[in-house]
Amino acid sequence: MAHIIVVGNEKGGAGKSTVSMHVATALARLGYRVGVLDLDLRQRTFGRFMTNRRATCEREGVDLPTPSYHELPNIEASALAPGENLYDRRLSQAVAELEPQVDFIVIDCPGSHTRLSQVAHTLADTLVTPLNDSFVDFDLLAHVSPDTDTVLGPSVYSEMVWNARQLRAQAGLKPIDWVVVRNRLGAQAMINKEKMAAALDNLARRIGFRVAPGFNERVIFRELFPRGLTLLDLRDVGVVGQMNISNVAARQELRDLVKALNLPGVNVTF
């Protein structure tokens, strides 16, 4: 069966689609068959990225390793069983159609609580939760005492993940490997950065996730979006000579992230 990677949290602007695009493209470049689902049916950031990528390949005459993007199928209400949820059926059918064809399925969730996102979390073999290095975003995972910075208890998103874990356990499925990714880290060593690291380490032990390095605040992670490219594609489109120190560092950050996910059978060679 395909290994399902769900990228999600319930807050916008944390870099979910950026992480999804780079991880899926990296796996495709490593030779794996990768299927992609975008559950943000309104914004469709990942869907737009794939449209841009196909257009670039056609325009520039290049054949870039590319994930296979799939829309959720349309289901007629008459085809639903009594009491069956339409969104549950659309997602389960999409995954069932993809699984025989691919090694990995990457699911990009919206930055809000939706039925699709909730169900996707129960399907996750690996759950990746990007988090800006801020206590505003940390509040999504847990509530913190304003006086002592101690963790008072889990927040709504952590409770949703807990429920997803319970459902998987009841179904006899293997546990979710939950990875919280610290995104948009500042270059300087600041007190807030140290406090965030300590708080995440404390919470990780309490509710069971791993902390992985994410992406620093670099333009390269966003500026290639209109062309549907990532920094791993630069050599193929003839701009390798323009690589600067920041781009090289960004490549290392992506390498470190994919390694930290510890995906089955993946040997990171880029």
Structure description:
With about 270 residues, the chain is α/β, with parallel strands linked by helices. It has nine helices and nine strands. Strands 3-2-4-1-5-8-9 form a seven-stranded parallel β-sheet, sandwiched between helices. The longest helix has 17 residues, at about 190-205. The mean pLDDT is about 90.
Per DSSP E runs of 2 or more residues, the count of β-strands stands at 9
Distance between the termini: 25 Å
Radius of gyration: 19 Å
Overall morphology: globular
Strand portion? 15-25%
Structural class by SSE content:
alpha/beta
Low-confidence runs of at least 5 consecutive residues: none
Question: How are helices and strands ordered from N to C?
Answer: EHEHEHEHEHEEHEHEHH
Strand order, sheet with most strands? 3-2-4-1-5-8-9
The pLDDT mean sits at: 90
Helix content: 40-55%
Biggest sheet character: 7 strands, parallel
Number of helices: 9
Keyword list:
270 residues, alpha/beta, seven-stranded parallel β-sheet, two-stranded antiparallel ribbon, 9 helices, 9 strands
How would you briefly describe this protein structure?
The chain is an alpha/beta fold. Helix content is 40%, strand content 16%.
